[in-house]
Every structure is written in structure tokens, then in C-alpha cells.
Amino acid sequence: MKEFTFSVPQNIIVGKGSLAKLPEVAEKLGGKHGFIISGPHLNKMGIVGSCADALKAKGIESSVFTETEGNPSVETVDKAAEAYKASGADFIVALGGGSPMDVAKAVGVVAKYGGSITEYEALTKCRETSFR
Questions:
Q1: Whether the Cβ atoms of residue 48 and residue 21 lie closer than 8 Å to each other
Q2: Residue 90 pLDDT grade (very low, low, confident, very high; cuts 50, 70, 90)
Q3: Parallel, antiparallel, or unpaired: how do β-strands 61-65 and 91-94 relate?
Q4: Is the pLDDT of residue 71 over 50?
Q5: 43/119 Cα distance (integer angstroms)
Q6: How far apart are CA 31 and CA 64, in angstroms?
Q7: Strand partners, 65
């Protein structure tokens, strides 16, 4: 296999008061429009709205995708990636547990390098992409 380096820059913030830190993290990254990926339960609880409100209070726009299910499907990733591209967002927020984080990582890869997430299985797309 050809040698390559793969870097996915991310900040993971966990714990009480984490939501309040989001605007500061976004500002440090130069973010102007966030794309919040979560699931329907956190949306119904109002947590997704609180996340969007925290960004808005600092003048940062946001779009949301709340269709993430447990063990997310390829269709969910594809749908989220299309929504991300259409939103004009310049950063992604994964709100919740492992499923939103998995979808967010997959959306980031697909948005940057193209194709479908299925092309990255077994490094198919990695062999075709310089990852620059």
C-alpha cells in the first residue's frame, strides 16, 4: 500500500458547560456558519435549538440536520453531506453521541474529497485521492 497521511482536525468538548464554549471554539476556527448534526431526540429536547441560539448570539449562522439514527446508514450520510454542501456552512458541529460524531466525520470527508462514503471503505477512494 502507498504511504499517506490523513488528518481530521477536530475539537471534542464534553461535560457541563460545553455548549457555552461552542461559539468561542467556532470563532477561533474562523467559523461563520455552522452545520449542526444531531438526532431527533436532542432536537425534541430543545438542545439543538440551544446550540443554534448560542451560535446566533455571537453572530454565527447555523443550519441543522437532525435525522441521524443509531448506527447511521449510508443514506443518512449522503443526505447529510448534500445538506451540508447546500447550506454554505464552513464548519460542522456533532451534537450528541457516537452516531452524530460518525456522521459528522463522514460528511467532512465526503464534502472535502467528494464521492460517496462507500468509496472510502477498504481505502478505495484513499488510493485515488492525494488528501491535500
A1: no
A2: very high
A3: unpaired
A4: yes
A5: 30
A6: 15
A7: 37
User: Would you say 67 and 103 are in contact if contact means Cβ atoms under 8 Å apart?
Assistant: no
Cell numbers describing residue 22 = 461552542
Looking up cell 448534526 gives 37
Could you read off the pLDDT of 102-123 as tens digits, one per residue? 999 999 999 988 888 888 776 5
What's the grid cell of residue 61?
449562522
Give residue 29's pLDDT: 87
| Cα three-residue angle 21-99-42, rounded to 5 degrees | 60
For strands 61-65 and 33-37, give the pairing: parallel
Given a contact cutoff of 8 angstroms between Cβ atoms, the answer to whether 117 and 103 are in contact is no
Contacts 24+ apart (CB under 8 A), 76-85: 76/103, 77/103, 77/106, 77/107, 77/110, 77/117, 78/110, 78/116, 78/117, 80/37, 80/106, 80/107, 81/106, 81/107, 81/110, 81/111, 81/117, 83/35, 84/35, 84/111, 85/111
Neighbours of 37 (CB within 10 A): 32
